[in-house]
Amino acid sequence: MHGGFDIPRSHPRYESLVAREKLVEMFEKGVVVPQGLIAHGRGECFDYLLGEKSHDFALEAERVAAAYLLLSKRPVISVNGNYAALAAGEIARLSEALGGRAVVEVNIFYRTEERVRRIHEVLASAGVKGLLPPDCEKTRVPGLESPRGIVCVEGIASADFVLLAIEDGDRTEALVKWGKRVAAIDLNPFSRTAQKASVTIVDEAVRATRNITRFVDELSGASEEELRSIVAGYSNRETLSRAFKAILDRLSSAADSGVLTQ
């Protein structure tokens, strides 16, 4: 039962319907804003085009993100309303896999302190480790005037690597200009976020976070040399090119046959 609606597990789009119900439920609780529902619909459209699965280029980017999380001195996971609503449990498992190495910071565009507190409660209830308090000491991202520019001094401001999801492009660009390595989970390879991030993970947020956690577990015993080799061999431009090609190939196949296959 999700949001009062019983979704049968036999439904071919069960996961997608569950995600929608989670977002509606969290919208009613003040965690998600109306604009977040629109953003989810846009991302879901790209997930359709990509076949609702984690492609090899996404898995490679997720492995690189895991390597960065293990290499970085001050890794931070930035969480907004949609990410918390969809993946609080997965974020908790990732924070546990990292053994408390990563700080988790609530950061939102449509910002009120009440909404920050509500998102914090969702994450805390899920068991997220390293969660910064809503009343953390604040500063601003240089050159970013929107509310997304408000960050915690002990969080994003001090980070050398930031993992974020369902993000706006101006903040991603500003963080990179500020000297941060940024891994962005974004289903839309056309977005400014995808184009500006250091590592773009073209995958759905829940799948991506689960995959990153799995790679953290696999790489936890790797040497620093091996982790640096994984990071050094990565090309974000190549990842985006492969994502565009996957969409093009899938559309071409559908155009030729009239049938959309996995």
In short:
GO terms for molecular function: acid-amino acid ligase activity; ATP binding. Keywords: ATP-binding, Coenzyme A biosynthesis, Ligase, Nucleotide-binding. This protein is an alpha/beta fold and 262 residues long.
Features of the shown structure:
single chain; 262 residues; alpha/beta; Rossmann fold; five-stranded parallel beta sheet; two-stranded antiparallel sheet; 10 helices; 7 strands; globular
Plain-language structure description:
The structure is a single chain. The protein is an alpha/beta fold. The protein has one domain (56-243): Phosphopantoate/pantothenate synthetase (Rossmann fold, 3-Layer(aba) Sandwich), CATH 3.40.50.12640. The chain is built from ten helices and seven strands. It has helices at 14-28, 34-49, 56-71, 81-97, 113-126, 169-177, 192-196, 205-219, 224-232, 236-257; strands at residues 75-79, 103-106, 138-140, 150-152, 161-165, 181-185, 199-201. The strands form two sheets. The chain has a five-stranded parallel sheet, with helices on both faces. Helix 6 (169-177) links the parallel strand 5 and strand 6. Helix 4 packs parallel to helix 8. The longest helix has 22 residues, at 236-257. The protein is globular, with a radius of gyration of 18 Å. The model has no long low-confidence stretch (mean pLDDT 89).
